[in-house]
Amino acid sequence: MNTRQLPTATNPANHRHDAVLLGADYTERLHHLEQALSTLPDKPEETPNSCLRALWHMAGGSALSVAAAHDQALPALDAAQLTALDALIARRLQGVPVAYLTGCQRFMGLDLLAGPEALIPRRETEMLGVAALAKLREMAPWRGAAQVIDVCCGSGNLALALAAAEPMATVHGADLSAEAIALAGRNVALQELGERVALHTGDLLAPFHAPEFQGHIDLIVSAPPYISTAKLDTMPAEIIGHEPALAFDGGPFGVSILMRLMRESPALLRAGGWLGIEVGLGQGSAMQQMLRKNASFDAVETVCDASGQIRVLLARKRDMATANANANDRG
């Protein structure tokens, strides 16, 4: 990744200055994107302007995320670089995601490598990350070092964000896809977090059957596949045509993996540890009820998006020894 420093352009006034400075090379391409680009609601950071800025930097030799490109002044491009820019714009209009064209995506303040090996990190997963980090920080004063597992870790975005934000956390990321784990490994190296982030390839929690994990984990987080198999073909071509289907397919009803996590995570969590999961639109209430009925958990919390939809669920592992003692006392 090119890390050379560029002059900053952190506000719209500076963006307008870029447009004036670069003239028709910029304004004509921006107008083209404004007319032709279709954006998706799950990528609110992407607009014709932000897309053009990221691709402009890419053509100029700097691979930047959309968020990072927003903060950098645009360089002048020569004729060959403008040709390269037009090729990038053409691919974007054909549906290739910006993050795959630049190879970069920002997540919870970290600029990470992105590629077709893994799902592009979304804002909904940042909601899970923020909620999970709050739980880690609640534990820190009395717990000290925390053990975290990120299931279906993809590019490693959630595992790395938690490790970067909480120095007392050791994080294990796991994914069924060896290709996703390879990408996550490159992100671990990029962020220099190899001492506290370990990666595993396997089916959900299968890599953690060893005794050192059983009953010793403080936090399990997951942004798993939660789209029903039948709906995959109805998803926008930009998503299903480019991002890995494995990262979306949640089984016949979209909740197969969510339900497995609810069943399998209690064996790994210590008493008072938390399970945090991202859920799909319309799934929150049903999954909340399932967690409340699960005797392994004694508290369930929700995080809603701006429209009031539950997108994150958090459940605390019950202290079964205390619960059994209380039951015996009542008996």
What's the quick description here?
By secondary structure, the chain is an alpha/beta fold. Helix content is 42%, strand content 18%. It has a 7-stranded mixed β-sheet, sandwiched between helices.
Give the termini separation. Answer: 64 Å
Strand order of the largest sheet: 5-4-3-6-7-9-8
Q: Count the strands?
A: 9
| β-sheet strand percentage | 15-25%
For the biggest sheet, the summary is: 7 strands, mixed
Mean pLDDT: 90
The radius of gyration computed from the alpha-carbon positions, rounded to a whole number of angstroms, is 22 Å
Helix-and-strand structural type: alpha/beta
The arrangement of helices and strands along the chain is HHHHHHEEHEHEHEEHHEHEEH
The total of helices stands at 13
Low-confidence stretches are 1-10
Helical residue percent band: 40-55%
Silhouette: elongated
